[in-house]
Design a protein that fits this description.
The protein is built from 4 helices and 5 strands. The chain is α+β, with helices and mostly antiparallel strands and 151 residues long.
């Protein structure tokens, strides 16, 4: 076999070996990063004009529950799924608490699904509300986390 054919065959075998090793490594990485379940994120769109109108409404004494983050989270959960339309707000667990952002979680009875509701106090409402503590809480996102049902 001449030198050119031998070098060409060596190169083809080397490339094949590298491709096979690369494909194997890629398969391992892909299987490692595939999610072990379902993660759905629902965003609640914020209309600034409507938020300011609601803030004024609450300032006038209507719907004071909009200032209670746990009640707002329960209301948002009812919007996510009708099965929670009359759910007890006390069942929600406070996950994170900041001055302008809070998150509550609820675990399903069977423990297979977790719901996370994130709320915000929008600073653009501060002039309408008068103080940070009087700003209404508004739902920002709802997350539904379920493990892979094949497990």
């Amino acid at each position: 076999m001449n030198t050119i054919k031998r070098n060409a065959l060596t190169a083809v075998l080397a490339i094949s070996a590298l491709f096979s090793a690369g494909a194997s490594a890629a398969d391992v990485r892909i299987s490692q990063i595939q999610p072990k379940g379902r993660h759905v994120i629902l965003n609640f769109p914020i209309d600034r004009a409507k938020a300011e109108t609601l803030q004024r409404w609450v300032n006038e004494g209507h719907d004071p529950w909009c200032r209670d983050p746990q009640l707002v989270a329960a209301s948002a959960l009812g919007r996510v799924s009708s099965q929670f339309s009359e759910y007890e707000p006390a069942s929600l667990e406070l996950e994170t608490s900041q001055k302008t952002k809070m998150a509550y979680v609820l675990h399903s009875i069977d423990g297979r699904t977790t719901y996370r509701i994130t709320l915000r106090r929008y600073r653009f409402l501060l002039p309408t509300a008068g103080s940070l503590e009087r700003i209404i809480w508004m739902p920002e996102t709802a997350e539904i986390l379920s493990p892979d049902t094949r497990d």
